Amino acid sequence: MKTYRHQVLRNLKFGTLPTFMAAQRKKNELLVENGLTPYAVYAPAFGGLHHMVLEASFESMAAFEAEHLATKKIKGMAGLNAEQLECTIPGTAQDNLQRLGLEA
């Protein structure tokens, strides 16, 4: 089965981890309340604690796109995104969408 993994990569400014994580907890609550996929949060094994990865899996590109559009309609989500970006070192924000389960 093919799945799509969305990764949100952020390098945080020193001392902003609590603010970033509080915003992500609120975002995940809003996602779940709206029947959408919450994101797991972790720091990679190599790198500093300021390297953060948010990750969620979707069954198809269409499912990702539908949830992405639905997320934009949730009241308060844009403010939480802005709050997290304030915690992020400028120029380090990245997003990846990877297709998993490739067949030869």
The CATH class turns out to be Alpha Beta
Determine the mean pLDDT. 92
The succession of helices and strands, N to C, reads EHEEHHE
How much is the radius of gyration in Å? 14 Å
General form: globular
Protein architecture, described:
With 104 residues, the chain is α+β, with helices and mostly antiparallel strands. It has a single domain, classed as Alpha-Beta Plaits (2-Layer Sandwich). Helices cover 38% and strands 26% of the residues. It contains 3 helices and 4 strands, in the order βαββααβ. It has a 4-stranded antiparallel beta sheet with strand order 2-3-1-4. Helix 1 runs antiparallel to helix 3. The longest helix is centred in the first third of the chain and has 17 residues. It is globular and about 40 Å long. The chain starts with a strand and ends with a strand. It comes from Kineosporia babensis. This is NIPSNAP domain-containing protein.
Brief rundown of the structure:
This is NIPSNAP domain-containing protein. It contains 3 helices and 4 strands, in the order βαββααβ. The protein has 104 residues and is α+β, with helices and mostly antiparallel strands.
Key terms:
alpha+beta; single chain; 3 helices; 104 residues; 4-stranded antiparallel β-sheet; Alpha-Beta Plaits
Write the layout of secondary structure elements.
Blueprint lengths: L2 E9 L5 H17 L6 E3 L8 E8 L2 H12 L4 H11 L6 E7 L4
Helix pairs in contact: 1-3
Protein name: NIPSNAP domain-containing protein
Organism: Kineosporia babensis
